[in-house]
Specification:
heterodimer, A: alpha+beta, globular, disordered N terminus, B: 113 residues, 14% strand
């Protein structure tokens, strides 16, 4: 551009003072230029012999419309100036950035410390935000996620909370077009997929209503089915997930129209879902559930997750009212088979909240934690910047003395901060990419949602925002302070660098206090989470998980079509397992703890009064065979457990758990009493209560039914074997035995009981580990922060210490002097952190339930750790101050 | 002003201005005077078009402008070629000569077959 004109004036032309560009200045320049032209012309014409008046007219005539041309020139010049000043700003910023980089390269220690600090904190923020984004903000590529609600049952009469809906109830709701645009219901339906190689199990979902329409999905290829495909008489069709299509057909479009053998029935593949869509629970294929008249009568079968899309403008109260009125209709038609207790109801939960489940509070807590870390990092970097800039006060003073404005200095410092922030952000992105890969591997229970975590455009945008915010946050205060230098003062000072003014000192101390306070909050949070997990893992699950190996099998419906065949299979299985080498006890069950198996049913106590208000007794309904209780290590507390004597033709025998005995037979001996959950049966034994899916949850009453007397139960069951060998050896033995009985039988979900329990606390462990990592990071940063500030302050006072020592002060007194300053900051930081934590704790408690009552060790321990780190960080500079050599420091003046 | 050949005129005008300024910095009036003189006033430069052309070329960075004083101590806006302007002049000159050669070829061609 016109930069060369700045350097050398036009030769031979005396330079006029240039007026800075403004709208007014531009107009004046144009008018001056035109006036000069016209004047010159007029003089020329007058010299040629015209009168002055004639010449004026002639000059204007030759020129044309002076007004119009003048305003044209103005607009051209304005554009020129705008373009030029923007260009100059860019050039200036670029110059500032280059200057900053040169300065940072000269102080690599400072630059590395800052970039590392920022990389860790921005990386953590990016990683956690990517999880928040994938789980809480955009779990599905659905444009109207905020309008999706999940409808659930609360059946107080059955002591059943947050239950699924039945298929007919779901269809009734979908028909409520006054509140819902459309809706769907779906339930898990896993299949044995026949084909080449070992039989495999695929994760399927059966849907009613408009599943794909509700979520706004379009087919990747082929077509997606709609509500009409649930009508009776249609063919068997399925939609594949993108992943299964790739896996089975290598992404071949000719898969459309081919058939799949699922549970020995042929299903036509009609389409493939878009990539990344695996809702719910990693589904590999979706198929319509056929709504036969029988299905539509099963109002008691609560197995559908009902998801509805709200009409635009339907308010929360309006929806609540519609749900209440709908439920009243069901009850009045006596279609609600669960009693009429007033506390029964249906209610709604926002879809995202429901699907995110326990991840939601975890992610909120973690997001807050990483933001704390970022704040600590900013406070840390801000004080580093301030310390560094006080060393450069002379440079600024010289610039100010030579006439530099304040703004260029502020701008230059801000640019420097942004350069640091961007370098930190870039390194942070690399760290986040690694963290995200780790998170995706974290596939435990419901945390499966983390598989969707990715580093995509919105996440990058968040990182950019964090980088700029951090740069301004830690750069602004030091930048403003840097520009406030008084050149006279600064230039008078010793060449070792200006000492820190009182305001600057206060800023540094404030930054340290903030860092310590935030670090303490994180440390306490992590401490509470660790303690909570420890207490949880110490909970007795009610069985002995050590040495218990489990797996699930599914006896195919065609090969084990009759109850007799299934019974024979179970008997053979049990006997072969029992006799296998290395197996001490073996059993089968439906209702293995820490699986997703569930089955809850009402029961009656024969001879007992019915409960008041239509309420019914409710208990888990489990089935077992073989030596199940011995294999699981569940103690028998009273009576006996069934054996071969209890056959199909003898009296039905039942085992209850301690919880049921306590709840329904208080102070009585339940053994010998008759109850009814299905047909009547006699209680012959009481076993210990078992935690079923959550170590933190209170046990729920359970009734165990004996498989040989319940041959109608299907072929899906869990196998438990106990033995002294390693889990892998046990698993191999059991697998071999099952293969020998039926090589076609799919065996899956092979895991030790200990692993299952571990998985159930996976989310908690995940939270604890991350919180712990962030707390350690915060601790490190805060320690570095206090170290930097104290050692800087003592460095500044080296002369004073030298004089004191020269005058005979004890080195110990110097150490105490320095430490006193550090201790004061630490105490302030700890007090501030404690106050903040009291506020945060209540939130934390409501978010992460099951933290449990705490003893004060976590609190005291955290404070002690932080205080120790702070003291250690002060000790090093204190020692250094006391070892000052007076002759050196005094000579330096 | 004849609007129909404005484009051609402006293109030519740019070339003339660039060439004129290649002799040294001048203000607008001097540019018209110089062109008048060397063409014996056969090529009348539209003054109304001259200034917009100068300002536009300044915007494009072909010209640098600076306020200075004339010999008679009057404040005037001086223009001079920038490095980009010099490159532009070379390019325009070769374009012009190719253009005029082609036009001449047509004009000097012997009658059609």
């Amino acid at each position: 551009m016109s930069r060369d004109s700045d350097r050398d004036p036009i030769p031979g032309v005396r330079r006029a003072i240039d007026v800075p560009a403004s709208k007014r200045g531009v107009r004046r320049h144009v008018q001056d230029e035109l006036r000069f032209h016209l004047e010159g012309r007029i003089e020329e014409l007058v010299a040629g012999g015209m009168s002055r008046a004639e010449a004026e007219v002639e000059a204007r005539k030759r020129f044309g419309d002076v007004q119009a041309i003048g305003s044209e020139l103005e607009s051209i010049d304005l554009a020129t100036h705008r373009r030029r000043s923007f260009g100059e700003l860019l050039v200036g910023l670029w110059r500032d950035a280059r200057y900053a980089v040169r300065g940072l390269v000269r102080q690599p220690g400072f630059a590395v410390a800052v970039v590392l600090t920022l990389a860790l904190s921005i990386g953590a923020n990016t990683a956690i935000f990517s999880a928040v984004d994938a789980v809480l903000l955009r779990p599905l590529p659905t444009p109207w996620l905020d309008r999706l609600v999940v409808i659930r049952h609360d059946l107080a009469s059955l002591n059943l909370r947050d239950a699924d809906l039945s298929a007919p109830e779901t269809m009734d709701l979908i028909a409520r077009s006054d509140v819902f645009e459309t809706g769907t219901g779906y339930r898990p339906a896993d299949y044995n997929l026949a084909g080449a190689g070992e039989p495999r199990r695929v994760t399927g979902t059966m849907t009613i209503g408009d599943f794909f329409g509700t979520f706004g999905m379009r087919p990747h290829i082929g077509r997606l089915y709609g509500p009409a495909d649930s009508e009776p008489g249609r063919g068997f069709i399925a939609v594949l997930s993108h992943g299964l299509w790739q896996e089975m057909f290598g992404g071949d479009p000719s898969a459309i129209g081919r058939t799949l053998e699922l549970n020995d029935r042929a299903y036509e593949i009609i389409g493939v879902a878009p990539p990344g869509v695996r809702h719910p629970r990693g589904t590999q294929l979706w198929m319509p559930l056929v709504l036969t008249p029988q299905v539509l009568e099963q109002r008691g079968t609560l197995n559908m997750l009902a998801v509805m899309r709200l009409r635009d403008g339907i308010t929360e109260p309006a929806l609540g009212h519609a749900l209440d009125s709908e439920y009243a209709v069901w009850t009045n038609r006596t279609q609600a088979p669960f009693g009429t207790q007033a506390a029964n109801r249906i209610f709604h939960v926002p879809f995202i909240e429901y699907t995110a489940g326990e991840l939601r509070p975890i992610l909120i807590v973690l997001m807050a934690a990483v933001m704390f870390v970022l704040l600590i990092a900013c406070a840390n970097v801000a004080s580093l910047q301030l310390v560094r800039s006080s060393g450069r006060a002379r440079e600024v003073a010289v610039r100010v003395a030579l006439g530099a404005g304040r703004w260029p200095i502020v701008r230059q410092r801000l640019v420097e901060s942004l350069v640091l922030a961007f370098a930190g952000g870039a390194a942070g992105l690399a760290l986040a990419a690694v963290a995200i890969r780790l998170m995706r591997g974290f596939e435990v229970g419901r945390l499966q949602a983390l598989q969707q975590v990715r580093l995509d455009f919105p996440v990058l945008l968040f990182t950019l925002g964090a980088v700029v915010a951090a740069g301004v946050l830690f750069g602004l205060a030091p930048a403003l302070r840097a520009a406030r230098v008084d050149p006279q003062e600064a230039l008078k000072e010793s060449p070792r660098g200006a000492s820190v003014g009182a305001g600057r000192q206060r800023f540094l101390q404030g930054a340290v206090v903030v860092q310590l306070a935030l670090a303490l909050v994180l440390l306490l949070g992590a401490g509470v989470a660790i303690q909570g997990l420890g207490q949880l893992l110490a909970t007795d699950p009610g069985f002995r998980p050590e040495q218990a190996m489990t797996m699930q099998i599914s006896a195919r419906a065609d090969r084990y079509a009759t109850p007799a065949l299934r019974d024979a299979f179970r008997r053979t299985l049990f006997e072969s397992l029992r006799d296998a080498l290395g197996i001490e006890a073996a059993g089968v069950a439906y209702g293995l703890p820490f699986t997703d198996q569930s089955n809850s049913s009402p029961f009656e106590i024969i001879g007992a009064e019915p409960l008041p208000g239509g309420e019914r007794r409710h208990a888990n309904m489990w089935f077992f065979g073989g030596d199940y209780f011995r294999a699981m290590g569940i103690p028998v507390l009273a009576g006996r457990v069934p054996d071969e004597r209890d056959a199909a033709n003898t009296d039905r025998v039942l085992v209850i758990d301690e919880q049921l005995a306590r709840e329904y037979f208080p102070g009585q001996d339940p053994v010998g009493r008759r109850i009814n959950q299905g047909p009547d049966g006699t209680i012959i034994g009481v076993v210990a209560s078992v935690k079923h899916g959550d170590l933190a949850a209170p046990p729920k009453a359970a009734i165990y039914h004996w498989f040989p007397q319940n041959t109608w139960v299907g072929g899906w069951m869990s196998v438990v074997v106990r033995g002294p060998g390693s889990p892998a050896m046990l698993a191999n033995t059991a697998r071999g035995v099952i293969r020998e009985i039926d090589p076609q039988l799919p065996i899956y979900d092979v895991q030790s009981m200990a692993a299952r329990i571990e998985q159930s606390v996976g989310a908690r462990r995940f939270t604890m580990q991350l919180l712990g990592a962030f707390a350690v990071l915060a601790l490190l940063l805060a320690g570095l922060g206090i170290y930097g500030v104290i050692s800087y302050a003592t460095g500044q006072r080296a002369q004073e210490f030298g004089i004191r020592l020269a005058l005979g002060a004890e080195p110990g007194a110097i150490v105490r002097m320095v430490l006193r300053g550090g201790v004061l900051l630490a105490v302030l930081g700890l007090a501030g952190g404690a106050v903040v934590f009291i506020g945060v704790e209540r939130m934390l408690g409501s978010l992460l339930h099951g933290l449990g009552p705490r003893d004060p060790t976590a609190v005291v321990g955290s404070a002690l750790i932080l205080a120790t780190i702070a003291l250690a960080a002060c000790w090093i500079p204190a020692r250094r101050a006391a070892r000052v050599d007076p002759t050196v420091t005094l000579r330096a003046q | 002003m004849p609007h129909a050949d404005l484009d051609l005129l402006r293109g030519t005008l740019d070339l003339l201005i660039l060439k004129t300024l290649s002799w040294g910095p001048m203000h607008g009036l001097a540019v018209t005077r110089w062109i008048d003189r060397v063409t014996d006033e056969r090529l009348q430069v539209e003054e109304g078009a001259l200034y917009p052309a100068l300002h536009r070329m300044e915007q494009r960075g072909w010209l640098d402008a600076e306020w200075g004083y004339t010999d008679r101590n009057r404040k005037a806006k001086f223009y001079r070629l920038s490095a980009a302007g010099r490159r532009q002049l070379t390019a325009e000159m070769s374009k012009w000569s190719r253009y005029s050669e082609a036009v001449n070829l047509v004009l000097q061609a012997q009658g059609a077959r």
